Amino acid sequence: MIIKGNIHLFGDDIDTDAIIPGAYLKTTDPKELASHCMAGIDEKFSTKVKDGDIIVAGENFGCGSSREQAPISIKHTGIKAVVAESFARIFYRNCINIGLIPITCEGINEQIQNLKDGDTIEIDLQNETIKINSMMLNCGAPKGIEKEILDAGGLVQYTKNKLKK
């Protein structure tokens, strides 16, 4: 599968409090959460996202609390995938569980200064490569059970599919 979209850049140590600040956790409505996505960094982020866009970030993306609302808010803005040098472990797993594709890319942090919001990124999940402008990088796409869960659309749908069988 190939994913292509516009980049939204973020740096290192983007924590879940910045992704969806606590003041906005009074709802469970995914669209309402999405309207406040990244409000700890950029209040207008959700209005800039187009369906299929991709976040590119540095190290330790999703650190902080284990709140599942963080990847839910990202997914429901229309973001298709998050590419980062590294992820906080629980955030990574929450992405898998809700159907947001997390992709590790060693070396992306060094390339961030050469990128800008709106650049086009193309991710080849099968061959585990990323193309940004004229640059080609290797990446780590989810495999095994993680890929099966993502292919089903998240853990809930994966479980429903298994129970039907």
TrEMBL record:
Transmembrane segments: none annotated. GO terms for molecular function: 3-isopropylmalate dehydratase activity. InterPro entries: Aconitase/3IPM_dehydase_swvl, AconitaseA/IPMdHydase_ssu_swvl, IPMI_Swivel, LeuD, LeuD_type2/HacB/DmdB. It comes from the Archaea. Keywords: Amino-acid biosynthesis, Branched-chain amino acid biosynthesis, Leucine biosynthesis, Lyase. Pathway: Amino-acid biosynthesis; L-leucine biosynthesis; L-leucine from 3-methyl-2-oxobutanoate: step 2/4. Residues 38-105 form the Aconitase A/isopropylmalate dehydratase small subunit swivel domain. Its EC number is 4.2.1.33. It is an enzyme of class 4 (lyase). The keyword Lyase applies. Coiled coil: none annotated. Gene3D superfamilies: Aconitase, domain 4. It catalyses: (2R,3S)-3-isopropylmalate = (2S)-2-isopropylmalate. Pfam families: Aconitase_C. One of its GO terms (biological process) is L-leucine biosynthetic process. Heterodimer of LeuC and LeuD. NCBIfam families: HacB_Meth, LEUD_arch. Belongs to the LeuD family. LeuD type 2 subfamily. HAMAP family: LeuD_type2. Catalyzes the isomerization between 2-isopropylmalate and 3-isopropylmalate, via the formation of 2-isopropylmaleate. This is 3-isopropylmalate dehydratase small subunit. It comes from Methanococcus aeolicus (strain ATCC BAA-1280 / DSM 17508 / OCM 812 / Nankai-3).
